[in-house]
Amino acid sequence: MTASPEAGSGRLAGRVAVITGASRGIGLAVAARLVAEGARVAITGRKPEPLAAAAAALGGEAVAIGIPGRADDPEHRAAALARTVETFGRPDILVNNAGINPAYGPLLDLDDAAARKIFEVNVLGTLAWIREACRAGLAQGGSVINLSSVAGLRSSPGIAFYGVSKAAVIALTEQLAVELGPAVRVNAIAPAVVKTRFAEALYVGREAEVSAGYPLKRLGEPDDIAAAAAFLASDDSAWITGQTLVVDGGITITGGV
Questions:
Q1: Which of 8, 32, 96, 225 has the smallest C-beta neighbourhood within 10 Å, fewest atoms?
Q2: How far apart are CA 112 and CA 223, in angstroms?
């Protein structure tokens, strides 16, 4: 993870970003990339200590603040946006990275409570964060980036309902791109397997075997997703909205996930 200790230069200079689920992994890599490109960031996560450490690593309170809480908690969402506005000003960028997948196995064996929780966090939570950010000033202009998955593009045995939720995120992205344009652009990123703690069950102990199926012969790194997010947050993507950018090392063109 690399980040500049001073915001103010770069293609995101002067912009304010809110990134959910950013104490580690993809979210933290996105935060670091946005700071390196000039943004100030508010990051969220469930556990206060790792979140505080992440904010410090990003450069401290001049460029990064951590606001702990659950992504599906309305009070946390309101508090996070209020503190962002108080500290840095209105948000220009929202990255919806927080997501869960507490279930593995066939859909017909899926516990209803687990399914509801997945949908609550991954889909309704994404919508709620966008609503809250718009209330806090994002509606005046900016960029929303939703983290989907290649599991939302085709069948994904074992994590099928997670895939259903990520397909819903893609549909939500398209709908909101129409409703919020032209002031706000709404796009999604669909990664394949990225080497994070969240995805360990998909590759640990057999990384070489899994990587062999990818045309680029490696799994994703958090920085791969961060680079895509920085592009979608910037004016370099000024005529792009309602799109899902697949960042997958080529795996989907082989028919795999």
A1: 8
A2: 35
User: How far, in Å, CA of 96 to CA of 188, rounded?
Assistant: 9
- Structural domain boundaries in the chain: 16-254
- C-alpha distance from residue 119 to each of 47, 165, 167, 230 (Å): 22, 6, 11, 26
Contact 161, 107 (CB under 8 A): yes
Helix, strand and coil percent figures for the chain, each rounded to 5: 45, 15, 40
Signed CA dihedral, 172, 77, 40, 35: sign only: negative
Tell me which architecture the domain covering 16-254 has in CATH: 3-Layer(aba) Sandwich (3.40)
pTM over 0.90: yes
Q: What six digits make up the tokens of 7?
A: 């915001």
Catalytic residue among 104, 162, 203, 214: 162
**pLDDT beyond 70 at 4:** no
For 209, phi then psi, to 5°, come to -65, -45
Q: Are 43 and 19 in contact (CB under 8 A)?
A: yes
pLDDT tens, residue by residue, 153-162: 999 999 999 9
Which residues are bridge partners to 18 per DSSP?
42, 94
- Residue 162 annotated in active site: yes
Strand partners of residue 19: 43, 95
Residue type, 246: V
pLDDT tens, 127-143? Answer: 999 999 999 999 999 99
The whole-angstrom separation of Cα 91 and Cα 142 is 8
Number of H helices, E strands in the chain: 8, 7
Q: How many CB atoms lie within 10 A of CB 205?
A: 9
